[in-house]
């Protein structure tokens, strides 16, 4: 029993750290769904393409830039991709949510194909310039990577919630999330708010990809696989709730960590699917919607 508790707290800590990354991915999915009712299945492949761009810009494969310049250039690239993507599917968004959602599958395949065409199918390494140290605190071994992920996630999420809660653009986003027809009648431009959410989601995807890739290698499927967990986080938290995405991300991170360690890493994908199905049956609108009502 003592061995179980000895392992439990480090697993909870590392699960929470990984869960912060899932939350970043889930927030991107929720931003787009709340504004335009589209489930963006291209989120992972576009974020993966951005991670490869950073590798290409910083490793000499495409350019030889500093890491910071490579990240900035990649973010500008995904913003351009987000604008182009929305320009393509905008007519579909106003016709059918389902058609627009299916269209994102095609865009994801295009992004994956572009990654393979430019960078090939090789697995590469993309490092994150973070302080490399470790320390033991109350039985937990905390690394510089853990603190970096936590700090970046907290700052990014705080900025996002500030924009949504306290700016005119955020007010417009919340109004369109509740009633797009009434918002349009009041003079709000739906396309501008949709585009805002697509751009924010793209940037969140890049941040999440940057932080998750150093824990593994970068391949054409790495970030897309990571986004499956983000999708599960959005399902648990509710696609209509930004706080729910945050809670869902941390829950998925912890649950996946515990299952992988105590049960079996081979069945982690099966477990994830089971969690999604269970959540859809028990909390179809997300856990926060059941507890306190959906928050705008």
UniProtKB/TrEMBL annotation:
Instruction: Give the record's membrane topology.
Output: Multi-pass membrane protein
The answer to whether keyword Cell membrane applies is yes
Gene Ontology biological process terms from the UniProt entry? amino acid transport
Q: What is its main location?
A: membrane
Give the record's keywords alphabetically.
Answer: Amino-acid transport, Cell membrane, Membrane, Transmembrane, Transmembrane helix, Transport
State the compartments where it is located.
Cell membrane
Regarding protein family, the annotation reads: Belongs to the binding-protein-dependent transport system permease family. LivHM subfamily.
- Kindly provide the name given to this protein in its UniProt entry: LIV-I protein H
Which Pfam families is this protein grouped with? Answer: BPD_transp_2
């Amino acid at each position: 029993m003592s061995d179980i508790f000895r392992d439990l707290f480090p697993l909870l800590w590392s699960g929470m750290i990984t869960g912060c990354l899932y939350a970043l991915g889930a927030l991107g999915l929720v931003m787009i769904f709340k504004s335009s009712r589209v489930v963006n299945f291209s989120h992972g492949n576009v974020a993966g393409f951005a991670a490869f761009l950073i590798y290409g810009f910083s490793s000499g494969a495409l350019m030889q830039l500093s890491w910071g310049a490579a990240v900035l250039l990649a973010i500008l690239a995904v913003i351009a991709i987000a604008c182009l993507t929305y320009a393509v599917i905008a007519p579909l968004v106003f016709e059918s949510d389902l058609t627009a959602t299916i269209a994102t599958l095609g865009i994801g395949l295009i992004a994956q194909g572009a990654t393979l065409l430019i960078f090939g199918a090789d697995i590469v390494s993309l490092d994150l310039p973070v302080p490399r140290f470790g320390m033991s605190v109350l039985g937990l071994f905390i690394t510089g990577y853990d603190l970096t992920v936590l700090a970046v996630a907290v700052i990014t999420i705080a900025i996002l919630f500030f924009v949504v809660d306290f700016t005119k653009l955020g007010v417009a986003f919340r109004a369109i999330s509740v009633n797009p027809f009434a918002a349009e009648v009041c003079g709000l431009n739906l396309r501008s708010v949709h585009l805002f959410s697509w751009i924010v989601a793209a940037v969140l995807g890049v941040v999440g990809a940057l932080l998750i890739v150093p824990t593994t290698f970068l391949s054409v499927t790495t970030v897309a696989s990571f986004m499956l967990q983000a999708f599960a986080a959005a399902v648990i938290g509710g696609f209509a709730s930004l706080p729910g995405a945050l809670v869902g991300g941390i829950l998925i991170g912890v649950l996946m960590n515990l299952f992988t360690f105590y049960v079996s890493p081979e069945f982690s994908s099966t477990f994830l699917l089971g969690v999604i199905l269970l959540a859809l049956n028990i909390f179809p609108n997300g856990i926060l919607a059941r507890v306190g009502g959906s928050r705008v």
